[in-house]
Amino acid sequence: xxLYAIVFVLITATAVTLxxxxxxxxxxxxxxxxxxxxxxxxSLDYALxxxxxxxxxxxxxxxxxxxxxARRLARNLYEDYSISTAVADIEDFDASSLNEVAINNSRxxxxxxxxxxxxxxxxxxxxxxTTSFYQDLxxxxxxxxxxxxxxxxxxxxxxxxxxxxxEKFNFMIRNFDEHLQRLGATRLGARGEGDDGLGxxxxxxxAWKDETLVEAASHLRAKKGYNHFTSPYKVVETPHLTIxxxxxxxxxxxxxxxxxxxxxxxxxxxxxxxxxxxxVYSKQLFAPAYDRDCLHIEFDVSRTDLSYExxxxxxxxxxxxxxxxxxxxxxxxxxxxxxxxxxISENQDSGAQxxxxxxxxxxxILRYELDICGKVSREICGALSKMTPNAEVEAHMVQLxxxxxxxxxx
Length: 410
What we know:
The chain is an alpha/beta fold. 28% of the residues lie in helices and 20% in strands. Among the domains are: 23-219, Flavodoxin domain (Rossmann fold, 3-Layer(aba) Sandwich), CATH 3.40.50; 378-409, no CATH class.
């Protein structure tokens, strides 16, 4: 069976992955994705207390963008305000645990904050991971036993990811915001709404973040400071491993390890368990005279039980050109270490997450895992400002990071 796709080509791709929108929501406990062990593991308050955090950022993501923004926000809070945060998937919690956060805030002098970063999926739908929390939130009574709003001592910030080409633009974050305020919670700053339809998602996030974090830090009584750059990742070279070692990760894994007796690759397929589909046909639809690329692509899913339904996704896995990989190795002074094996882990409190912990080489990382050919963002300019050789260059990079108009006119 073949599926067809029209792809506007931005980068060279060697494989695509497919996953289907889940028909039911699978629950997982906080941190480790395992069976529910107690009421505590699905509690936002328990997560804040046991990790000794003042902010918890929960994300509802279908394709990973909301999670990426959540982790970027956590890094900014730590680097700019020395605020350590917890970052977690919203499917790990029950909406009723918001009551616990509010109650413990009222009983103690603590100041904590809940941040929601939520994508709207399809035409106003919650993501798979958000569905249960959203349904439960809408059923919470507007008064507690004493006639007061139950979340009157809860403070939160909110950012949504949406697409204005759909009628129900950012429907999820708007509904969350309405429900939370109906229950007495207090939002700090404006509700952020990113618009992927205008290609402004990243700029919308940066604008919201810059304004909202000031209010969040004020609520937490944290002052902005200047921290020298600290990598969110820990890189360790492993000289006992070589490029010929069996445990080395050198390329993306195929589906053969999941083949069942009937010859099909085992599902279900979702954003955590995608199917690597081979491309079988590609045709350029525009003549060379046109200043754009558009490909008609066919890919083979005959080894699965996949059939297209509204909401299914196609993900493209890019491979950076070898010339650019070699160039980056040279720029970083790693040409003589191209095949050196390393392991990567996240530094504590950085907000980062390592998705691939297998040993691999510098070359493998630059070829498959980093976007070394993408456009430089304002956020990257801000990060690079901490590594500049002198104050003049630093000031210019800081200005580029802060001034949207200057950045886009440079």
